[in-house]
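User: quick one, fold this
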Amino acid sequence: MTTQTLKRKKSGPPSSEDPSEETTEAPLPLLTLLTHPRVQLAVANYGALCLLDIAYRAVQPLFFATPRALGGLGLPPKTIGLILGSFGVLNGALQALWFAPLVRRFGPKRVYLAGMGAFLPMWVLFPVIGALAQKQGMSPLVWTAVMLQQVASVVMDTAYGAFLSQGYLEECSAMPSMLGCIFMYITSSAPNKSSLGGTNGIGQLVAAFVRAIGPASATSLFAVSLERNWLGGNAVWLILIALSCILWTVSIPLPTETWPRHGDPQGEDDLCSADENACRG
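Assistant:
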């Protein structure tokens, strides 16, 4: 009886000592993550979005405060604060109402492409608003253009939420903001569960870097454009439009849906076929 019991205990497959499971879930080296195609694509798109977004957020209040004679609006700080605050209210309300239906109908990639494309009217409206303000003052037409720019900014902000996949929408529907789900796209690009921390860390590092250089670069470009009167002070908008078009192309290789979740056999097979050494540990 004792011998049979021992044999039965030994014959049981140990759940935590499976060599293949350990090697599959081993965290990949940072260099391997940096060269992984899915991680590079996801992080590059997130960095591009953060760069354009932070440049816009830095230049917008500067444009509002610039005197009309120089192409701005010459608004007082209180009015500028009200405009920026109205964006927060409008963005929160519309994102809560339309984001999930948009992604379910069109898919995350199309929503993301639309969000990135919204930078074009956002930049174009700056010189248009400035020219109208010089001719008409703060007329209803100027305020309408400012509000239209705010709406375009809300459309752009859906690009952050588009890092979700349709399977994640139900999980995040109870969250007060889509920012809680922003890294779902990057998370789905992680080669395995043990590499989630490294993958998100790379995304955070890239975002921090572009958010450090973005405001200084955009505001300096704005100031130099006015000081040297490049294209009547409007060269900054032309450069930012060209940059937006270039960075928009980074999103073209994105898949229609986010990559399979961890634990999906098909997703693991795709990973192993792309990087056999990573699967072997």
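User: anything notable?
Assistant: The chain is about 70% helix and 0% strand.
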